[in-house]
Specification:
Radius of gyration of chain A: 21 Å
Helix content of chain A: 25-40%
Structural class of chain A: alpha+beta
CATH topology of the largest domain in chain A: Enterococcus faecalis V583 fold
Number of domains of chain A: 2
Oligomer: homodimer
Largest sheet of chain A: 5 strands, mixed
Distance between the termini of chain A: 32 Å
Shape of chain A: globular
Number of helices of chain A: 15
CATH architecture of the largest domain in chain A: Alpha-Beta Complex
CATH class of the largest domain in chain A: Alpha Beta
């Protein structure tokens, strides 16, 4: 038998099969709460991590700028907005994407020196990922708010909630986020715009652990109030679970699957496994959806946040069939649209998850592993469920909707794949 | 205009409209935990309440007899089975249906003197209903087990869990079970064979209240372990909520809607609103379903328990479309069978609930208010989701499945309605 060299198509298919197997094998588990300065001691307090691809201050949207000001105040580097802006203008502040530090953050996604982070580990590969604690609704840093109430809550999360949750986590082993997410999918969450089941299951899991910490009941009660008062509490855990899973496919030679999608409120960007950590960037689209009373599309900031990592795993928009309530919440039509959207997303993915299943589809797995080749071939861009931020810093959330990833990111990525993997003659054609 | 007397059909339609409005208006709320001897001081310890219609010891099935023995031991009236049987044979023990005392109980449904009961009140009408605390899985009295471990757990429920839960309830106002059930339906529970969402939401609600009781953490932790360790914990609350709702339509003159369905493991019985508290009885069917390893249909006891009260409200089998996981669990086929079963049940009900909605059906309400006329006209018997008990006392649950109410109950009830409401000539025809 003569040795036939693999075709490029076969190489990519084999690489994608490896990637899919890793996505299927991943077992993200919540193991601890740690502070950023412990996880990344090489980052100084003047380094702020943010959602999305790299961006300069000049190109930042309003909410992201507002969150930068808030973070500099939280870290004690500026007493007010004026001092914060002066620091930025002197070039004293360094900005870097969360994704470069194994971290994800919702909306503005600012992760600063003293913030507490959930630490999630993929038990199969040891890959670690981090995410801040969800602040709840209302005026919050992730939507660019930075007044005293916002900073007071952030301090409480850091100084009170995090130590109590860490103590509770210490009362038992790792928390199996894969099982918890699978269970929540069967309970109508899609883990992006709806996390009520996951949050309830998590609170239920934490209840006996909290009671075993030996901490005073008043401290536990305050933490319990916060945990039970925010249906989106689990979102940040879902994001960290997705990040720990997706990072297992970073840099697989020849792989055409998307390893990250993110946005900073100005740009949308993707990374592709076979192309390492290169970003493929295009202007972020503005979500289509439903607005809270008093707001309209004119108020909407372009799409933002690292939360689209959950769509890379097959949750959020990709799991719309699991969540008729979200179809309605984001204004995407009748319940029948859910299965239609999930079916559409299945045309651009490499496979179906064996763990994350949708009962209403007879327990079919969510479509997972976005293939840039399929996106470009079909012209079907990934659909993301998202909150909508006001374009002015500090106003906060003004609605919820769906948004498409810009196709340009995928065409650029496919060209780069072609340039790298096709023979020179074919690449030139 | 001449006065036309209403036809019988018009009278029934008007009565049913009143009944349906009451079912829609009901707001069942959990207000307290109380002991049976406080709620019903007129009942002595020798009176045991049981599931289903009245039955003599001679006709009781194995599990019900086993539970009777266990309850007599729990109450300190007998030291062992021999003494318990001697009491029964001397005629010292009085048996009465739970339903005659505003109470419901799952499976054998034994409710004895010292047991703690959830007290649920319909805020719209003030109607009260009661149900015991769910014992969890394994060897439990409700499946007829009565060994020392069963009694120890029942004592702990009574002496430890109930006071702690009562103290926690006291830290806040009534708990809105209507809202909680509605939310759980949107999370894949049908509130009969699946209560994981409702139980999680309830645990989440109780968490801050437990922490405010001021009780020692070790006591709270034990309660938290129990609450979070049993996915069916909420079933008994769903049953009490359904009972409080259905009792609002007891005795509406001319009404052909079912106010209760229940079974004692030998007989199945229904009550019909316009016919007061009369039972219409037929032999209980044996459930069809899936068996745990090592068991088969030959082990199954006929259908038992007051839990079919949830089907009267439109939950359980009637809400199958909400719960693809239950369709599979009870062996009823593929997920598509869920909507088909719910649609079938809609053909025998008076209306759709405005509160209890099914997201996958574009938020259509569950079919509620079983009309005996429609059951007889269509020949479609109500479908009930149920656990399957071993026919021998103490073995416990051997599977889960679905069972049809016997049509004979409905034909008897329709004949009684005709005898009561049709003119004598018509009734004779």
């Amino acid at each position: 038998m003569s040795e036939q060299p693999w075709t490029v198509g076969e190489q990519i298919a084999a690489a994608n099969a490896v990637a899919l197997a890793r996505l299927h094998a991943a077992q993200p588990q919540l193991v601890a709460l740690r502070y950023r300065h412990e996880v990344w001691p090489e980052l100084d307090p003047y380094t702020l991590l943010h959602a999305g691809p790299p961006i300069t201050w000049e190109r930042m949207c309003g909410p992201l700028r507002g969150a930068v000001v808030g973070a500099l105040r939280l870290e004690g580097l500026a007493r007010d907005e004026r001092e914060a802006l002066a620091l930025v203008e002197r070039g004293r502040v360094r900005f870097a994407p969360n994704h470069d530090y194994a971290t994800v953050g919702p909306m503005t996604g600012i992760t600063s020196h003293s913030m507490a982070l959930f630490e999630v580990v993929d038990a199969a590969s040891g890959t670690r990922a981090y995410c801040t604690i969800n602040e709840g609704l209302g005026k919050v840093l992730r939507f660019g708010a930075n007044d005293d109430s916002v900073l007071a809550r952030l301090r409480w999360l850091r100084d009170e909630l995090a130590p109590v949750l860490a103590a509770a986590l210490g009362q038992g082993g790792p928390i199996d986020l894969r099982a918890l997410i699978a269970q929540a999918l069967a309970m109508g969450d899609e883990l992006h715009q709806r996390n009520v089941a996951a949050t309830s299951l998590f609170a239920r899991l934490m209840l006996p652990r909290l009671l075993r910490t030996g901490l005073p009941a008043a401290r536990l009660a305050a933490v319990a109030d916060f945990l039970t008062g925010n249906d989106q509490f689990f979102l940040n855990l879902a994001m960290a679970a997705a990040k720990a899973t997706l990072d297992t496919i970073r840099g697989i030679d020849g792989c055409s699957l998307v390893s990250a999608m993110c946005r900073n409120g100005t740009d949308f960007a993707i990374r592709v496994s076979g192309l390492g950590d290169q970003w493929f960037v295009a202007p972020a689209n503005t979500p289509q959806g439903l607005y809270f009373p008093g707001f309209s599309a004119a108020d909407a900031n372009p799409d933002m946040g690292d939360s689209a990592i959950v769509e890379c795993l097959g949750l959020g928009g990709f799991a719309m069939a699991a969540s008729p309530a979200v179809v309605r919440f984001v204004g995407a039509g009748s319940a029948a649209r859910g299965p239609a959207i999930t079916a559409e997303m299945a045309t651009i993915t490499a496979g179906r998850s064996p763990h994350y299943q949708i009962p209403a589809l007879d327990f079919a797995g969510v479509p997972t592993g976005i293939d840039v080749r399929k996106v470009v071939a079909t012209g079907i861009a990934p659909l993301i469920n998202t909150g909508i931020a006001h374009r002015t810093a500090g106003v906060g959330q003004v609605g919820a909707g769906v948004v498409r990833a810009p196709l340009a990111c995928f065409t650029q990525a496919l060209e780069a794949l072609a340039a790298r993997y096709l023979p020179p003659a074919a690449a030139r054609r």
